[in-house]
Amino acid sequence: MADDEYLTPAQVAAELHVTTITVRRWITTRQLTAAKAGPRRWMIRRSDVDRFLAGAREDPAAVDAPSEDPSFSKQLVAPGER
Amino acid sequence: MSAERAREQLELSEGRWEGAIRAHAQPPPDAGFTRRLRALADAAAQEQAAYGYATEEGFGWRPGPPWLPPQELRPAPWRSSLAPAEAWDRFDDAAEALSRARTGVSVIAVSRAFGVLADAAHTLAAAIDDQQHAHRRTSAA
What is the number of structural domains in chain B? Predict the structure, then answer.
């Protein structure tokens, strides 16, 4: 099944046109779910990449009331702030 | 591109995006609707690029509230007189995806959602123009 496919950080990086450093940062900041497969080795499920790209959060029930405020940048977290 | 430069890009693109959204505050649409729609599409494309830079610079995303489009862009009975349902559906789906991305956890999802919305808004504007041209041809015949 496609959802059970495992990808390396390099494969995810290639698909999303980012560096492997960025993918590892997503993993260490818990934005992207990954499994540890050994020292300095991560494996990422295809379904977790899809969930990450859809922007899905861990707890969908904790969504706030809809807002007309068009500002999105308030949600940004600068590098090092996390 | 540095994190500071990414911030600057975001300030510029966000200002343009907010202005484009404010222009759609009041229904029903007037003669300037497609112009406003294309301005929104261009602003969304700039947002896509700015959030793409933010991704590369290591910015994270704190989940926010779902986004509610302005009045003029919400489903309404007059829509069918302007463009086929498929074009509106595609636009609504893109707006919904952007809203979902704001509640999520990844900057790249937000960037992509802005890109999809930009495409959908351009397509919708073209569909409205096509339908208006067809009406004019029918009226003139």
Answer: 1
**Residue B12 distance to chain A (closest CA, Å):** 11
Of B7, B68, B105, which has the smallest distance from its Cβ to A55's Cβ?
B105
- Distance of alpha carbon A54 from the chain centroid: 9
For B38-91, write each residue's pLDDT tens digit. Answer: 999 999 999 999 999 999 998 999 999 999 999 899 988 889 999 999 999 999
The pTM score is 0.80
Distances (CA, A) of B17 to A35, A36, B2, B40, B124: 38, 40, 22, 7, 18
Tell me which residues of chain A have a pLDDT lower than 50.
1
Query: What is the domain extent for residue B134?
Result: 3-140
Closest Cα in chain A, distance from residue B130 (Å):
29
Give the domains, in start order, of chain A with CATH numbers. Answer: 2-57 (1.10.1660.10)
d(CA A45, CA B8): 34
Of A62, A65, A77, the CB nearest to B60: A77
ipTM above 0.90?
Answer: no
